[in-house]
Structures are given as structure tokens and as C-alpha cells.
């Protein structure tokens, strides 16, 4: 086995060097469960014409955490204090952990943000009322936000899936990390709390693209 | 990149074939938070001379889930209904998820079972009393139980760390998986709930050793 392992390591090293513009790594953002609301739902949950109250900017430009929280209710249980993220979106979307699904009693697919067809609904309780959505609950697909310039530097394309290496006591590799490219995005890898905990990561951790499946560009 | 990736895949395939006696994979056991108690603690929590009540055998021979549960209390919060696993052990040990540490308000190291020096303590509440242990809370190091015969077949040694491949929609590789060999063990990989969720695994999933760091045997 020994020679083969040395060769494997060599190839991993080569791939890392090729795929990585520098040694700084990609910043990590760890997402807890949260909800994006449409203005229609905001009206029902917090009062007609209510405007979300920003308490903290998030790393992606224009996105922010709000003072508002909601309770989400499934057939088996509820989860309180689910943070609302702003601004309002065209469609309401609830992003939960896999572990939350057991507590709520619903089966939730892993999806990219915005891909809510054939996803379960849930009951949402706000400060002034409640609403039952018929779809919109997802477990977030891990992904990396980046600008077109970053995508060029990393030699990746929007929608491509890459592998990322996580260096820690609980380290390893996550596969199926979706690249999302937009001039509005800042370079950042998004994992959920369970993914970060499983790899022993915190908000100061960096991730490294080690392989991509693209054709030569 | 293309040729290098093809070569990398080739080497992974070779290593998989070498390290894997057959294609069936290693069964997965997913551990939720739980506690092992010494008879001294059982006496304090459930009454002098109390005997644990088995409700279900676990996959490792002689180990079982008990009817008894406890509440564990940290400086920031409590977690109820923590399952007691039997039989009684020489030292009490609490195994929690990384996510539990935030709720409890304690910092917990990743450790192998039994390695509880320099670990935090916690307050435990049972049916008839409570006890404060000064150490014994760990996050379980991921590991694979196997018999000496399995170890021979997989070409691994007790205490060795290997990588495992997880094939799923959220797949990837976990590094630093400790091999634990005993004639009392049945072949099974143990991950905690957060690790399983991060990789989209369930109790029917299989794991595959893809690399080991040993010298030639």
C-alpha cells in the first residue's frame, strides 16, 4: 500500500496547488437554521406593511440578520427562535438542519437556495399571526459563493460541484459542494452547523478546493 | 486538471480495492448523546444498589440501552432524556454532540472512549438524586470496531487512524477514524448524529475504508 499512498498524496498535492490561487483558503460561514420571508408572509406574521429590523449585516452583500424570529411547527414538534434573514424575498424559504427534521417530524430534501419545488411545507408562527406554507422547507446544499473573478482564479464555473478539504482534528473532505457565481457575491463557503461540527470547524476555519469535475476551460 | 483527476480516481480505486475485503462495506452505527455510569453514580442517581434495566441490545456484544435516562446540566443550559447505556463501567462518561456543548455552555474535547483525563465535568440528575462529576464529558472520536480477523482482512491495526468514504448525496470522506480491535467487537463504524447528518447517512448506510497510514505489515 505504501507507494500507492505516497502517490495518492502527491496527486492530491498537485490538485490542491492547481485549484488554489493562494494559500489563504476560502472563508467559512456556518449557517444555523433560519428563514427567508416574502412580504406577504411578513404581513401575516408581523403585521401589514411591517418592515424587517436589521440587527447585523451578513457577509454576503445586502443580506442581514433581523431582530424578528419565528416558531416553526411540524407534525411532531416545534422549534422556537428561528432567526429571520432579510431582505424580503419573492418566496418564503425555511432552512433547517437534518437533525431538526426528526424533531419537526418532516422529511426534508437537500436543496440549493431557491429550489423549493416538491419540498414540504410547515406552519410558521410570528408576533402577530401564523401562516401555513405548502412548500419551502429545505436542508441547504453546501456551496461556495464567489465573484466571476474568483471563479476565474479557482478555474470553476457557476453550478459546478467541487470537493473541499477541511483541515482539523475531525478533518476530511466534503464532496458535492456547489459553486455559485455572481458579481454580488463575496468569497465564502457555506456549511450548516451539523456539517461544521462534524468536521470540527468554527467561523475562523478555512476551506480548500481540492478537486473539480469540470472539463478543461 | 483532467488527466490528474483521472489518475487520482484510479489510485483511490486501487486503494479501495486493496483495503476492502469485499464490496459489502462496513455497517454504520449512529450514536446520539448518551451516558455510561459507574455503579457509584448509579447508586446516587437511581438509589443504592439499583440495577440498570435493559430495554434493547446494542450491536456491540454485551452493550445495551437502558430504560433509565438522566438530565445533564452545564453552566448555560440543560439537556433532558440522555439515555443511559449499560452495563455499569468503572468510570462515568458522558458522550455529547458538538452542538450540545454550546447549549450546555462547556467546551468539550474530541476523545476516544475511556480517555477522560483533562475533560470537563458536569452535573447529572437522576430519578432519586444528582451528582456532580469533575470530569468525563467527551465528544466521541469517530471509530471502527472490529475483530482481530477483520483487522487482518482490512490490513489495519488497533489504534491506527484511517479515512472512510461515505457515498451519498452529501457524501465525502472522514479522516482520523480510529480502528479499535478486540475479540469482543463486532464490525461497525461509529459516527455521532452530527457526523451522520453532515454526510446524509442513516442506519442502513455503509462506510468504506479508502486509505490507511500503516507501515507494511
Automatic annotation (TrEMBL), chains A, B:
Its EC number is 2.3.1.222. It is an enzyme of class 2 (transferase). Pfam families: PTAC. Keywords: Acyltransferase, Metal-binding, Transferase, Zinc. It catalyses: propanoyl-CoA + phosphate = propanoyl phosphate + CoA. The keyword Oxidoreductase does not apply. This is Phosphate propanoyltransferase. It comes from Enterococcus larvae.
